[in-house]
Amino acid sequence: MVSRVIPVDPFDLVIFGGTGDLARRKILPGLFRRYCSGQMPADARIIGAARSDLDADGYRQLVRDAIDEFGGKTTCNDVDAFLANLDYVTVDARGDQGWEELAGKMRPGVIHAHYFSVGPGLFGDIAERLNRFGIAHDDSRVVVEKPFGRDLASAKELNASLAAQFDESQIYRIDHYLGKETVQNLMALRFGNLLFEPLWNAQYIDHIQITVAETVGVGGRGAYYDKSGAMRDMVQNHLMQLLCLIAMEPPSKFEPDSVRDEKLKVIRALQPLEPHEIVRGQYEANDTQSGYREDAENDRSSTESYIALKVALANWRWSGVPFYLRTGKRLSARSSEIAVVFKKMPHSIFEESDNEQANILAIQLQPNEGMTLDVTIKEPGPGGMRLVHVPLDMTFAEALGEDADAPDAYERLIMDVIRGNQTLFMRGDEVEAAWRWTDPIISGWQARNDVPKTYDIGSSGPMDAHMLLHRDGRKWRDIKQ
Ligand code: NAP
C-alpha cells in the first residue's frame, strides 16, 4: 500500500532562525523530503531569516550541507531544484533592519507562513514586526516552538504577546509528538473501530503507563536543561499530550476545536499530586561516564533528569485508574511507549490459570513506531491446553511495506500548517491549563527542598520509581528498544 501524497497549495514559508540547529536538523531536510515526495509544489518558496550576514547563495549552501548531513534516506536527487526555491534575508528580530526587504519578497496570492524557530524571548518581537512592516495579514500563519513558557505566568505572557498580533486561529504551537504516525493511529484505533471504545474505561482498564526513555544525557545543553528539568522539558508538554489522546472522550468531529476541547477537559480533570506520587531522579557518575551534576556543571543541582508520576483523572471514565508517567535521560534504552494494561479475566476456566495474563495494548513511538496487542492463545500442537501470551502486531508495517511514505513528525506538521489544519497543534488554553497543573507540583518540591534520588546510568531509573508501582501491586514494563 503506497500512501497518497496530496500536494499542498503554493506558499511562502519564512523560517526565522533559518540558520539554527532546529532548522538545519529537522525543518529544512523535512521540507526537502516533502519536495521529493511531490507534496510541496514546485513554486513554493522558503525564505531563511536570521542575523547572519548571508546572501541567497550562501544560504543555499548552508541548506545543501544540512540536507547532506541530516537529510536521511531519500532517493530524490533534485537538491538543486529544491534549493532554487530558497531565499534569505538578514533580519534582527529586535531591530528594524531587513524587514522592508522581507516584506518585498512575500508574493501576493499564496499562503504565508512564518516559522519562529528562535528562542521564545523573540516571539513577541517578531510577531510585532510582522504586523508593523505590513508582512502579516489575516490569513498568515505563525508556528512557534517549545518551550512555550517555563510556568503559567510566562506562558500567559507569550500567549498575550502573540494574541496582540494574531488571532488564535493563526497560531500553530508545535509539539512534534503529535505529528507521529502512531499517535494519530491511536486516534484512528480508538475512534475508527467499535472494538476498543467499549473497553476504554475504568471497568476494563487496570492502568496505563506512558514512558519516554532516552539513553543520552543532557550533554552540551546541560546549563539550559538545569533550569528546566524533566517535568518542564517533557511532562508538561509531550507526556501530557499523549495522556490527553489516550484519555479524551470521543470528539464530535475530527476537527481542530472539537479535538482540542476534549484534550483540554482531560488536563482540567488532572488531580493535584501528593509528594508520595512523585519520584525525581538524577543519573550518577560511574567510572567512565559523567553524572548529571557534572554534565549540568552544577555540583549542587537539584534538577531532575528523571521523573515518575502517578496521575489520576477525576471523571467517570477514569475513576480509580492510575496513569503512570515516567521519562528520563541516561536510561537503559531509547524507547517511548504507551501501554494500556487491561484487567485480568474475572474467572479462569483453564487449569493453567497462571499463564493467563492481562491483555496489553502497547503503542511504540520511538525508536520505531508500531502497535502490538498482547493476547493469550493456545500453544500450538498436541498435548493438552497450554496457554501462551503473544503480541499481535497491529502496525500493518508489512502491508504498508517499504514504499510507505511515512513523513517524520516535523514534515507532517509543517504541511498541516500550510493546509491550515490546527488539529495537531496545541491551543493557548491547553498550554495554560497544563502549566496550571504543573506549577504547584514544581513549587511543592521547591518548598520542600526536595533532592532527587540517584540512579545508575543504563538502568531504568531510581528504585523509588519501582516502589511507586510495587506499592500498588503493579510493575513497570521493561524499557527496551
Ligand atoms: P539555535 O541553534 O540557537 O538557533 C537560533 C536561531 O535564531 C539562529 O538561526 C539564529 O541565527 C537566530 N537568531 C538568534 N537571535 C536572533 C535575532 N535577534 N534575530 C533574528 N534571528 C535570531 O536554536 P535552535 O536549537 O535552532 O532552537 C530554536 C528554537 O526551537 C528554540 O526555541 C528551541 O527551544 C526550539 N527547539 C529546538 C529543538 C532542537 O532540536 N534544536 C527542538 C525543539 C525545540 P543568527 O545568530 O544568525 O541570528
Structural class: alpha/beta
CATH superfamily heading of the largest domain? Dihydrodipicolinate Reductase, domain 2
| Domain module count | 2
Q: How many angstroms does the end-to-end distance come to? A: 26 Å
CATH architectural designation of the largest domain: 2-Layer Sandwich
* Spans where pLDDT lies below 50 across 5 or more residues: none
Overall pLDDT score:
93
Shape: globular
| DSSP, total strands | 15
Over all CA atoms, what is the radius of gyration? 24 Å
How much helical structure, as a percent, in the residues?
Answer: 25-40%
Could you please say which CATH topology of the largest domain applies here?
Dihydrodipicolinate Reductase, domain 2
Sequence of secondary-structure elements: EHEHHEHEHEHEHEHHHEHEEEEEEHHHEH
- Figure out the total of helices: 15
Strand content: 15-25%
The CATH class label of the largest domain is Alpha Beta
Q: Ligands in the structure? A: NADP nicotinamide-adenine-dinucleotide phosphate
